[in-house]
Write a structure and sequence with these properties.
With 177 residues, this protein is of the alpha+beta class. Helix content is 51%, strand content 7%. Helix 1 crosses helix 6.
């Protein structure tokens, strides 16, 4: 009984991961096609960024395991000027968006969060995995109360929690609308 349960869980994770890898290829190719058509697509620092819904870039019928996640409302921002990718779940809207109308806009349009990534597909895969884990766990996978700052953990301060806020995130959310 237990072996069958473990096998089912491992198979589900393998299936979702293999679909995520194919999804990353499709999304990145879609962005490349869009940039060839419109090289003026806006970057993160422009103040008026282009955010795309994952569901607009991927056909759900190609991804039986991920189809509900794709429809969940993940926003994507590709920015070659970024050093690393980032995933911001909807719990960060409360801290980063001061205006209630703007906050409502993000909750309604990107209820499963925002994924930022530079040019590397590995970064997109990594961040989409975070988004998928967050969506699948109902928000428990990325609960800031359960994450700790690595430096403080190494220094022996277990009470210092990870802070998802940073200047780039705050700047981005304030430039939206």
């Amino acid at each position: 009984m237990r072996a069958r349960f473990v096998y089912r869980i491992l198979n589900e994770d393998y299936a979702s991961y293999s679909e995520l890898k194919r999804l990353v290829d499709d999304v990145d190719n879609a962005f490349d096609r869009m940039w060839k058509k419109d090289p003026k697509m806006k970057f993160l620092d422009s103040g008026d960024q282009d955010i795309f819904l994952l569901s607009d870039l991927a056909k759900t019928d190609k991804y039986p395991v991920l189809k509900d996640f794709i429809k969940a409302g993940v926003g994507l921002v590709k920015d070659p000027q970024m050093k690393n990718g980032e995933y911001y779940g909807p719990e960060t809207y409360e801290k980063n968006v001061e205006d209630p109308e703007e906050r409502k806009f993000f909750y309604e349009n990107y209820p499963a969060g925002l994924v930022f990534w530079p040019v590397y597909r590995d970064e997109l895969l990594h961040e989409l995995q975070h988004a998928y884990d967050m969506w699948r766990s109902g928000g428990k996978a990325n609960d800031p109360r359960q994450k700790y700052d690595h430096k403080s953990a190494l220094s022996g301060d277990p009470n210092k929690h990870f802070n998802p806020d940073n200047k780039e995130t705050t700047k981005y959310f304030r430039n939206q609308r």
